[in-house]
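Could someone model dodecyl-COA with this protein?
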Amino acid sequence: MTEIAFQDAYPEDLSHCYGCGRHNPQGHQLKSFWDGEETVAEFQPEPQHTAVPGFVYGGLIASLIDCHGTGSASAAAYRAEGRALGSEPPLRFVTASLHVDFLRPTPLGPVLKLRGTIEEVKERKVVVAMTVSANDQVCATGRVVAVRLPAAMA
Ligand SMILES: CCCCCCCCCCCC(=O)SCCNC(=O)CCNC(=O)[C@H](O)C(C)(C)COP(=O)(O)OP(=O)(O)OC[C@H]1O[C@@H](n2cnc3c(N)ncnc32)[C@H](O)[C@@H]1OP(=O)(O)O
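Reply:
Sure, complex below.
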């Protein structure tokens, strides 16, 4: 794994995201890293993330997939250009499409482990496929189409 989380390399003014911004104390503050050619992240759900008692709320899982996907997209774009994570100019991505399949109920208790595979890297678009596992069992899969940050959001 790399030492620095992808999200910790985001510019100051792009670090307020609810899912992954380090400057959002009420957000999830998700941290993603390389693990070889794949990307990984972990998240510990809390009781407020309940759907049915004992099980994780699906919206939280979607949020984790969203931010692990866009973070992975940024890191993949840097890697494709042979640049250091966070180097200027920043390679910023937002979610164009977020697809989630809930394969089985996700138990509330164990740490959730996300694993991403980079499916496609183009100059303006990166596609990332993901799994979310609890107790080494895949509970959800996801796919994010990430597109370079539009001027309207910069
Ligand atoms: C340093 C890091 C900091 C990173 C700092 C940010 C971190 C926070 C990230 C949090 C994640 C979020 O929640 S972001 C918030 C939620 N997302 C948004 O609000 C985005 C709103 N949507 C938009 O602004 C726009 O629709 C865009 C930018 C997504 C797309 O703009 P566009 O101008 O229409 O794009 P366009 O050129 O047509 O398409 C480019 C490519 O993407 C594909 N594409 C476009 N839309 C879709 C779609 N819905 N589903 C599938 N594919 C799509 C096209 O087919 C094309 O592929 P091809 O033909 O080239 O193959």
